């Protein structure tokens, strides 16, 4: 069973991101403050849940959360500041949308930068330990998937509806055949060395 909070503060937010390892699309982060009374037996790290369960949990989290925020950071910014900084930036943008402002922040992973004067703790595999990080992981993943589904219509040959921008064989084959789009992260190695693109 996941714990509700890490700290003693009422308004503790959990934050997490999705899409860090993708070749295309944004890195998306969410921040969630849950009430002390929150309880949900299905909620877990988004990677442990089916798409159906994530879609079921999204409106429950949005309805029951004291506050939540979601933010995308797009490929041009990722290419400019690198994916680690873009992930932290996305988390901070999502936290900035919270009202009330959190009194404490717990972050999935091991890297973060101070946000205003709010104390924080980084927690490895935090999305499998704390409900507020798990809730943030669900929102980050479902909002990012929805975005990838929407741009799929523009470039169906990359099948983002299915691979969500991750480096699958199919996605890489499409990049090799059609080249990168405005949604691709050009600072990433889009193809393995043996499939070099002449850009």
Instruction: Name the overall outline.
Output: globular
**Domain module count:** 2
What class, by secondary structure content?
Answer: alpha/beta
- Count of DSSP H/I helices: 6
Name of the CATH architecture of the largest domain = 2-Layer Sandwich
Largest sheet: 5 strands, mixed
Strand content: 15-25%
Q: Care to count the β-strands?
A: 5
**CATH class bucket of the largest domain:** Alpha Beta
Radius of gyration: 17 Å
CATH H-tier superfamily of the largest domain: Ribonuclease H-like superfamily/Ribonuclease H
Q: Extract low-pLDDT stretches.
A: none
Strand order, main sheet: write it out: 3-2-1-4-5
CATH T-level fold name of the largest domain = Nucleotidyltransferase, domain 5
What is the chains' assembly state?
single chain
Helical proportion, percent range = 25-40%
Mean pLDDT: 95
N/C terminus separation: 49 Å
Write the element-wise H/E pattern from the N-terminal end onward. Answer: EEHEHHEEHHH
InterPro entries: RNase_HII, RNase_HII/HIII, RNase_HII/HIII_dom, RNaseH-like_sf, RNaseH_sf
Enzyme class: hydrolase
Keywords: Cytoplasm, Endonuclease, Hydrolase, Manganese, Metal-binding, Nuclease
GO molecular function: manganese ion binding; RNA binding; RNA-DNA hybrid ribonuclease activity
